[in-house]
Amino acid sequence: YCMSAAYIETIISRMKSEPEISEDVKSLPGYFWETVPESMALLLTTLRKEYGSINGYLESRHIEPSLIGQLESALLISTSSKG
To answer: Smallest Cα–Cα separation from 57: which of 49, 65, 66, 47?
Structure first.
């Protein structure tokens, strides 16, 4: 998440140049786009509080379990050490 900070300005510029993006999104304040660790921590805490887990949130949005598994495989890094 934090690694995207180096690219966020380019992403925002590209997004704002797209005609199909609503003006409401384009006019969001700069802090909305910040990629600081505290923002992700707040998001994850809120999702866990309201849905029990990230998977709980995704399931509430009717995301297929197989897609959740694919997302986990593609996006998560295991923190368990083998050995």
So the answer is: 47
